[in-house]
Hints:
Elements (H helix, E strand, L loop, with lengths): L2 E3 L5 H17 L4 E6 L2 E6 L2 E6 L4 E5 L4 E4 L8 E17 L11 E14 L9 H13 L4 E4 L4 E5 L2 E8 L2 E8 L3 E3 L6 H15 L6 E9 L2 E8 L1
Parallel strand pairs: 1-6, 7-9, 9-13
Antiparallel strand pairs: 2-3, 3-4, 4-5, 5-6, 7-8, 8-14, 10-11, 11-12, 14-15
Helix pairs in contact: 2-3
Amino acid sequence: MLTSTVPVLRAGLLSALGSLVERLLAAHGIVYEVTRKDGLTEIRSERVVARFSADGGFSVSFRDGTELRGAGLVVEEGVATVKVSEGGLSFDYAHFLPHIEKCSTLHGHTATVSVDVTGPKRTEGYVMDFGVLKRLVKSVIDELDHRIVISPKYVRDVRDGRYLISFDGLGGSYDLWVPQSRVALIEGDSTVENISAHIARRLIESIPVRPVLVRVTVSEGVGKYAVAELLR
């Protein structure tokens, strides 16, 4: 079992943390139930059991055996959300989705990104500096900018600093030798849903706020976007 200790927050922040857990479960269509008794709030689903006590302690247990625990008081001011968007938060990328006819040939998009971070306000009254957050987001999307974004499953060979990218799709068969420096590998096919999840995973490791809810919105055109949320 992996156990890590993180700060816990009392009063409004503690209840807000429980609300974040509920929000994430609901967003992913996970059925859960909430019980409150004798100062203890329990949120239970098939995947996770979260308990929040009135004295400022909590535990979150996942089905894979991972457990988070916390105790003590850090702040009492509550939670807030900060957001960065536009203003250079965009990237150009190429990709393909072999099993979707319109997307089955190599093509490109200009994606715009916005990021919301919800977490405890520091004693100075803010969650985190906007400039720091924007730099973190920019560093992550720069890893995707002007690259072919693909799943590792399409890499058939590596030779002389190049990837052989091969796929058979509704738009035909492709074999492409591409410099490794021009390729970004992500989990799963490079749908906008998976790209937003990739950005969220990369960001949440770097954001110096705990607990934190990160919400990443990636748009690949007017009215076309996907949202990924992660709580840690």
